Request: fold
Amino acid sequence: MKMNIRILLICISCFGMGACESLVTEIDDADLPKTESRLVVQSFISPENQKTLVVVSQSAPLFGQDIPEALLISNALVTISNGSQEAVVPYDSVNMLYAIDKSRFPIEAGKKYTITASDGKRSVNAFCTVPIKIVSAKSFEIDTTLSSNFSNDTLLTLKMQWDDIPGERNFYRVRAFIDLEYSVPDDTNPAEFKERRVRSRFNVNWEETIGRDNFQSDASLDGTVFTSPRGTLRLPGITAYDLGNGNVFTVYPKSKIVSVTMEVFNTDEVYYRYHKSLDNARNSDNPFVEPSLVFTNINGGLGCFAAYHIGQLVYRAE
Reply:
């Protein structure tokens, strides 16, 4: 059997000519690289998490399938150890992952952890150390602005600052949630619409800029003040409902901030390198650039086992 693989060529002879030769080269199946499915383990541990979660799957071979896909594995033996204690992480069939509560196996700052997974045929392992110190935002700015699109939606913007831990190599990630109170139409029948106040939690999205994104390192910046990228949240907009006969029911959300939860992750280097490699792989859409490899620290397999410590600052509106 033969497979068609499209190969990008730069045909110098094309300039000034009508067309190139075909860009499709036939390669015999026997000449393709041989790949095997490997176990994939992903788990990120932290003292603040109520549960330690582990996802176990298997990679799809590069060739041999029309649509490569990773398959979840539900019958693996997954264990986690801190050197003196070990626990089996049971499978959660509802969420299709392995989970263990912190009351049964707590994660502690400064300790080294090892994870193992086996499906009876393949076995993998990895280790990581939980960072000791917590870093929290020391200041923040909240503002609103009109978005630049034609809808004139209102954007809530957030920036936060924190002090780098001096004298050691550090890696950071930021995250934030905003609890909003706002009005929504209440009823399924437009003729009987009325307003109702609700509360919901929204994730802040981070705008990436040159040299500053959601993941940052203190390389050459030891002991300095770090600033997050600009976080944005599109606030609920005005909605209007045509009730017929020229009648319109309009809901003005009248959004009110209840609280803003700002988090700084002090992560290990593995966590940082893995997520940065994921970002690079997603952005590798230039056909003249070689694909970017995703970092892994899983011995014998793929994926990531890493740790972080969360510092939290909560702003509550009056």
Remarks:
- The longest strand covers residues 171-185.
- The radius of gyration is 25 Å.
- The CA atoms of residues 11 and 264 lie 50 Å apart.
